[in-house]
Prior knowledge:
Blueprint: E1 4-6, E2 12-14, H1 20-30, H2 35-40, H3 43-59, H4 72-79
Antiparallel strand pairs: 1-2
Amino acid sequence: MVGFHLITTHTYIQMSKYQYEDAVIQLQETGSISLDDFKNLPYEDLTELLEEIKVWCLYANGKIDKLCKESKKKKKKKKN
């Protein structure tokens, strides 16, 4: 059985494929993320998201639109 997580009233994301970009969209739309969502992120995405949240809180004054929408690590991989 495949689990689904409700992000907004109309958007469903399959739990096994929950990634950095999905977490950022959720944070921008709702302003929060659950511990279950953190648990469903791959370790690499979780580490990057937590670092991005730290930078966002310190330098962007918590403005949701300033949260980096695309994974910086994945951008580097695309360039190589």
